Amino acid sequence: MLRKTQILTWLVVLLLVLNAVTIGTIIYHQRQEKKAISDISIGGYAGTNPLNGRFFRQEMGFNTQQMDVFRELNQAFRPASMEITFLIDSLKEVMYNQLTQAKSDSLQLQQLSEEIGALHSQLKKETVLFYIRLKEICTPDQQKQLAEVFKPLFITEHLTDHGNYRNGPGWKRKQTD
Length: 177
Prior knowledge:
Oligomer: single chain
Largest sheet: none
Order of helices and strands: HHHHH
Number of helices: 5
CATH class of the domain at 39-154: Mainly Alpha
CATH topology of the domain at 39-154: Four Helix Bundle (Hemerythrin (Met), subunit A)
Distance between the termini: 110 Å
Strand content: under 5%
CATH architecture of the domain at 39-154: Up-down Bundle
Shape: elongated
């Protein structure tokens, strides 16, 4: 009888430990998932813009439904934009290597320029589509915030309102009559 009681006691202890480990694992994975959701970022822009899940949830006030749509849109946009960016960078490296050769192939350089331009165009189209889809789920106030966070992707600060570079080559001040 004593032996049976010891065995049952050890089984109860084992089950308690097993339950504790299971609960700990569940909590750990939930925290990791929340962290991963917070770290979702847009394309290759994460280092230069705060366009990640945490930003949209905390700063823009996205609710659960908006975050679900953001995650879905970002899961399509991010790999596409990263791939295009990688291809552009690879072609730019090929172009640089061609430029630094003793005799550069101008035909190949022209072809590389066109490929880079086409990829850049494709990247902007992807970004525009992503922006429009995000804008559709935003409130009017959130749309204003969205416009501001996407602004650096479309407007370079060193340009004037008319597209001229400030204090750069060819920059001229308006003459007043």
